[in-house]
Amino acid sequence: MILGIGTDLCNIERIEGTLERFGDRFLQRVFTEREQRKAESRPRAVAATYAKRWAAKEACSKALGTGLRMGIAWKDMAVSNLRTGQPVMHVTGWAKDRLDAMTPPGHEAIIHVTLTDDHPWAQAFVVIEARPIADGASGA
Question: Which domains does the chain have, with CATH numbers?
């Protein structure tokens, strides 16, 4: 069953300008160390990488039904990639509490995320699924 859907479109040039204007202050407020390492490992696509992750955080907050309010913090949502390149959303703090509260008993929450960019745009789409837990195993 689908618990939430969110999408966001982000202008890469806007993120570029924010990086130039606020630099580390912006990065430390919004992105985890792991997200920063990923972006900095892509010298020709730093701003696009940050823009996709910004969009993913916005989309996730919408899928959680809150937007970026009600105590959710930027770093409560973080994107990493599997070895295959597939993006994965991790939630902690208030975002995790919200996810747990919206997940029905006997189900585990799975966050699906997809990212894309085509300069000057970056886009993210997030779907939160509640999947029944098989054979009484614990989940989410």
Answer: 2-136 (3.90.470.20)
Q: Which amino acid is at 109?
A: A
Q: Is 32 exposed, middle or buried (0-12, 13-18, 19+ CB in 10 A)?
A: buried
Nearest one of 30, 41, 121 to 81, comparing CA atoms: 41
pLDDT tens digit at each of 140 positions of the chain: 999 999 999 999 999 999 999 999 999 999 999 999 999 999 889 999 999 999 999 999 999 998 776 678 899 999 999 999 999 999 999 999 999 999 999 999 999 999 999 999 999 999 999 999 987 555 55
CA distance 72 to 79: 16
